[in-house]
From TrEMBL:
Subcellular location: Cell membrane
Transmembrane segments: none
A Gene Ontology term for the protein's cellular component: plasma membrane
Species annotation: Herbihabitans rhizosphaerae
Protein name as catalogued: ABC-2 type transport system ATP-binding protein
Record GO terms (molecular function): ATP binding; ATP hydrolysis activity
UniProt record similarity statement: Belongs to the ABC transporter superfamily. Drug exporter-1 (DrugE1) (TC 3.A.1.105) family.
Pfam family membership, one: ABC_tran
Upper lineage: Bacteria, Bacillati, Actinomycetota, Actinomycetes, Pseudonocardiales
Organism superkingdom: Bacteria
């Protein structure tokens, strides 16, 4: 699933222009430098005009396709200037959630406000406040990077020189200067994603929806995208991110919601989620069954797997408890082949919460583009 933010932007250029005029002249931070959290972001106001700290709120959102329930009463609260990650395997309903919040799709029930505006009754205002990049970039392949950006600028009707400044600054900020005049069709997957995001930023959105921004990217491009996201948040933007990568949510998100079969099965910080499952353990591999049995007898609470000759010993991963395990083995002259410390990660969380691993989702990951 994915969608084409270009349609959204084109349909709403005037509203964005109105907002930009209200906000003031365009001035891009070339370096993407830190300007302080919350400094740039304007707090949304609710109907009574009160300022709120929530960039996005949703309550009881429901959506079904025929008899298939995709969103089954979703509640979220995304604080302004933070990264919120909606984590789930393929088909969990992530794109549907993004489409509903960005007003591209009507929910069957529930309410939501984005940038303080109701997604049903204030569609235009919502659209004027957000930027969206999907899994499938809205980049026009027959244009160069610079031309794609210029097209966005033209849609926003910047005045004269201001528009040129925006294009050049974004090219520099996203490290696209060298390839600016090459056709986007020659860009790598990572470059295309960067260009897509740069195009979204032309409208100076306060809230950005990134629908699986790194799916299919190689590890280096993924890290580049993570750094860009961190810079955007440092500049005061709010990011609603969907991902099927546990590490991505762990790395970027202030809050993570785990979506499974239409429901949010857990929500919290990465640390809070990790705390919901049993603690870490030390894994010891032995060369012989006799050694495994001996170790199992002297290390209390351990569980042995005779086939793999592996013993799991509960541990907090701290130096003290690790030393205690090794000292005990020494004391009984038991030789260990391999010693690894395993602290719980989000994959363990997913397994504990949903009863199934996220491996299914990750193994689907499409062809990696360089
Ligand atoms: N227009 C549609 N008509 C019918 N079913 C749909 C439609 N759009 C999505 N679905 C179904 O709804 C479910 C959720 O889809 P969605 O795209 O929201 O999931 P996702 O978590 O974004 O997954 P992916 O990572 O594969 O994009 C899937 O089973 C999908 O097949």
């Amino acid at each position: 699933m994915g969608f084409y933010p270009g349609v959204l932007i084109a349909a709403d250029a005037q509203a964005r222009l109105d907002r930009m005029v209200a906000v003031g002249p365009v001035g891009w931070a070339v370096s993407g430098g830190v300007s302080g959290r919350g400094q740039v972001g304007v707090r949304p106001a609710d109907d009574s005009g009160r300022m709120t700290n929530s960039a996005i709120t949703a309550s009881g959102l429901r959506k079904a396709y025929h008899d298939k329930v995709v969103l089954d009463g979703i509640d979220v609260n995304v604080r302004t200037g933070t990264v919120f990650a909606l984590l789930g395997p393929n088909g969990a309903g992530k794109t549907t959630m993004v489409n509903v919040l960005t007003t591209l799709l009507k929910a069957d029930g529930g309410t939501a406000r984005v940038a303080g505006h109701d997604i049903v009754t204030e569609t235009k205002k919502v659209r004027a406040s957000i930027g969206v990049t999907g899994q499938f970039a809205s980049v026009d392949e027959l244009l160069s990077g610079r031309e794609n950006l210029q097209l966005m600028v033209d849609l926003h009707h910047f005045k004269g020189g201001e528009g040129k400044g925006v294009v050049e600054n974004l090219l520099r900020r996203f490290d696209l200067v060298e390839s600016a005049d090459k056709l986007a069709s020659t860009y790598s997957g990572g470059m295309r994603r960067k260009l897509d995001l740069a195009m979204t930023l032309v409208g100076r959105p306060r809230i950005i929806f990134l629908d699986e921004p790194t799916t299919g990217l190689d590890p280096r491009s993924r890290r580049t995208m993570w750094n860009i996201v961190r810079e955007l948040v440092a500049d005061g933007m709010t990011i609603f991110l969907t991902t099927q990568y546990l590490e991505e949510a762990d790395q970027l998100a202030d809050q993570i919601a785990v979506l499974d079969q239409g429901k949010i099965v857990a929500q919290g910080t990465s640390e809070q989620l990790k705390r919901q499952i049993p603690g870490g353990h030390v894994q010891l591999r032995f060369a012989e069954a006799a050694q495994l049995d001996a170790a199992a007898r002297v290390l209390t609470g351990s569980t042995a797997d005779a086939e793999s000759l592996i013993l799991r010993v509960p541990s907090d991963g701290g130096a003290k408890s690790l030393r205690a395990v090794l000292d005990r083995l020494d004391e009984y002259a038991i030789d260990v082949e391999e010693f690894t410390v395993h602290m719980p990660d989000l994959d363990d969380v997913f397994l504990a919460l949903t009863g199934h691993s996220s491996t299914e989702a990750e193994s689907k990951t499409e062809v990696v583009t360089k």
